[in-house]
Hints:
The complex is a heterodimer of chains A (199) and B (106). Helices cover 82% and strands 2% of the residues of chain A. Chain A has 199 residues and is mainly α. Chain A has one domain: Cytochrome c oxidase, subunit III, four-helix bundle (Four Helix Bundle (Hemerythrin (Met), subunit A)). In chain A, helix 3 runs antiparallel to helix 6 (166-198) and helix 5 runs antiparallel to helix 6. The model of chain A has no long low-confidence stretch (mean pLDDT 95). By secondary structure, chain B is an all-alpha fold. Chain B folds into 2 domains: 9-71; 72-106. In chain B, helix 1 (14-36) packs antiparallel against helix 2 (41-63). The longest helix of chain B has 33 residues, at 73-105. Chain B is flat. The N and C termini of chain B lie far apart (72 Å). The mean pLDDT of chain B is 93. At the A-B interface, strand 1, helix 1, helix 3 and helix 6 of A face strand 1, helix 1, helix 2 and helix 3 of B. Strand 1 (8-10) of chain A pairs antiparallel with strand 1 (2-4) of chain B, so a sheet runs across the interface.
Amino acid sequence: MTTVADMTISHRDAERYEEKDFGFWLYLMSDAVIFALLFATYLIMVGNAAGGPTPKDVFELDRVVAETALLLLSSTTFGIAAVALSAGERGKVLLWLAVTFLLGAGFIYLEIGEFAGMIAEGAGPQRSGFLSAFFTLVGTHGLHVSVGLCWILVMMGQVYFKGITAPVASRLMRLGLFWHFLDIIWVVIFSVVYLPGLL
Amino acid sequence: MEVKSGLQIERTLKPYLVGLALAVILTAIPFGLVATGALPRQTTLIIIAVFAVAQIIVHLTFFLHIDFKTTPRENLVALAFALVLIFIMVGGSLWIMFDLYHRMMV
C-alpha cells in the first residue's frame, strides 16, 4: 500500500501535474464567469413572468432543502474519499466515491423531477423570460453535476483497475476541485434564485 | 531523477467536518427565515446575501483548501482576476438594464 506522501515520480511528471492543476483551475475560473453571467441574466429576467407563473408559484422549498442537503453531503463524502486517497486505502476510496455518486445522482433525480413537473404544469422554458433564464441557469448547473457523475464513475474504474497511482491521484484531486466548485455554484443558486423567489 | 510527487496530502477529515458544520449553520438560518417569514423582506434578503458570501468563503477554505500560504500564487491571481471580471460584468449588466428599465417605465 503506497500512500500519496510516499509516492515518488520523475521531475518531469511533477511539473506536468502542476501544469494540469493550474490549467484546470483556469477552467474553473472561466466557468465561474459563465455562471456569473447566467446569474446576471436571471436577475434581469426574473420579473418578466409574462402573466405566467412567478417564482413563488413554481418553486418548492422542501425540494430545494433536500437538493441542498444531498449536494453538501456529497462534498463531504468526497472529502472522506480524498483523505482515504492520501492514505492509499483503495477500498475506502471506492466506497466513498460510490456514496458521493449516489448523493449526486439523488440531486439530479430531484432536479429532473422538478423540471418535469414544471414543464407538465405549462411552466416550461418557452413560457416567459423568467422561465427561460431559470432553466438555462439551473439546467447548466445540473448538466455540470451530470458530467461530474460520469467523471466519478470513470475515476472509480481507474482506481479499481489501475490502483492508486500518481496520475490517478492527480486526476482525483482535480475531480474534487470540480465537485466542490459545483457545490459553491449551488449555494449561489439557492441564495439568488430559490430563497428570494419564495420570500 | 525521482522526486516527491508534490500531490496534495490530506491527512485528516477535520477541515471537511468543520466545513460541513459551518455550511449547515449558514444554510439553515436563511432557509429558516424564508420558511417562517420571521423578519421583514428587506432584512431577510440582506441576511441571505451575507450568509451566501460567508458560505462561499467557508467552501473555498475548508473544501477547496484555498489559503494564502499553500495555494500557488498564480491560482490566487486567477481567482482575483475572475472576481474582478464578475464584478464588472455582473454589476455593469445589472446597472445598465435596471437603469434602462426605470427610464422606459417613467
